[in-house]
Amino acid sequence: MKRILIALSLLFAGFAAVPVGAQTAVQSGDLIKSDTNPAVYYFAADGKRYVFPTERTYFTWYADFSTVKTISAGDLSLLPLGGNVTYRPGVKMLKIQSDPTVYAISKNGILRAIGSEAVAVALYGSTWNKQIDDLPDAFFVNYKVGAPISSASGYDKETLKTGVPTINIDKLLAAGPTGYVDVRASGFTPNAMTVAPGTKVTWIALDGGQPFVASNPHPLHTDQPGLQSGTLGMGESFSYTYTQAGSWGYHNHNASTQTGTVTVQ
């Protein structure tokens, strides 16, 4: 009967909380493992569990295992697998064991090849080569290769890290913090937000749509100087700090029907 209730909860309760035992409930964002296996999973907003494929992946997101909940193997099996967790952006660099290319990580598992040692030093300091994790080739399929990084200004690791505080956000299952906009070929998400004066808004390109974020009207709105990103490749981001109160429009200059608004108050 308990297993039937779990299945019904998954289908009809919006995955808010799944009863998996007399004293334990699993909610979106929980870390879970079974009582028979040490593998740790992230229970996500889509009602699926995502496994940490390596311990190093886990420690880009969490400092320790203190919040992991243990449930029965039977209850765990009722939660469908969603895939693997990928590295948190901005924390480490990655390479696969069969290729010397070193990558920085953007949102949603997008890898960006670092163009030179000088760029790596500028981004990660003189100990950059000690901040690279080797990823087993088998897990490379969990990632996508985006635009390379030719200069340090092309990768804002701290802004990306701040914009992806949870795995739900990294997997595009939950909205990011205020001030972050996902950009895909379909448009901007969210396409409207309200921020305080002095807020830096960051747009992140998540696919090959090649967006060009610009003020609306464009080419240059006199009250928004500098709001023009140039064309963004997959994984690239662009930031603009809003200082004046008002409602400010922007659009994708490469797909002009895609628009958004930032209200500053």
What does this structure look like?
By secondary structure, this protein is α/β, with parallel strands linked by helices. The chain has three domains: 2-84, no CATH class; 93-158; 178-264, Sandwich (Immunoglobulin-like). The chain has six helices and 21 strands. The protein has helices at 2-12, 55-59, 73-77, 117-124, 157-163, 167-170; strands at 17-19, 25-27, 31-34, 41-43, 49-51, 68-71, 81-84, 93-96, 103-106, 110-113, 132-135, 144-145, 180-184, 187-189, 192-195, 199-205, 212-215, 228-231, 237-242, 246-252, 255-264. The strands form six sheets. The protein has a five-stranded mixed β-sheet with strand order 6-3-4-5-7. Strands 15-21-20-17-18 form a five-stranded mixed β-sheet, with no helix packed on it. A hairpin with a 5-residue loop joins strand 1 (17-19) and strand 2.
Features:
five-stranded mixed sheet, single chain, globular, Immunoglobulin-like, alpha/beta, about 260 residues, about 35% strand, disordered N terminus, about 15% helix
